[in-house]
Amino acid sequence: MANDKQTTKSNKKDAEKDKKKGGLRKYFKELRAELKKVVWPTRQQVVNNTGVVLVVMSLMGLFLFAVDTGLSYGIRALIGLGAG
Fold first, then answer.
1. What pLDDT, in 10s, does the model give residues 37-60?
2. Which of 13, 60, 77, 83 has minimal Cβ neighbours within 10 Å of its Cβ?
3. pLDDT above 70 coverage of the chain, percent
4. What is the 3-state secondary structure (H, E, C) of the chain?
């Protein structure tokens, strides 16, 4: 029983030592390797996607403007009815 606890403690210490080995250098080495695996979009894909985002944002802006204006008009009408 005590031997099991000792083994667990030594395993934890070994794991901590392994984490510290290499540290920052290992992290950046692995980061660079992962970035090389990424399939980056072409310039044309980025331009197309940016255009789509701008169009959708504009449409959503117009939609929200219309909803806000409509609700504002409706609330003003209700307040006007209550005051009269």
1. 999 999 999 999 999 999 999 999
2. 83
3. 71
4. CHHHHHHHHHHHHHHHHHHHCCHHHHHHHHHHHHHHHCCCCCHHHHHHHHHHHHHHHHHHHHHHHHHHHHHHHHHHHHHHHHHC
pLDDT at 23: 87
Q: Whose structure tokens read 């667990």?
A: 8
Alpha carbon distances (Å) from 40 to 28, 33, 37, 52, 82: 19, 14, 9, 18, 60
Tell me if the pTM is above 0.85: no
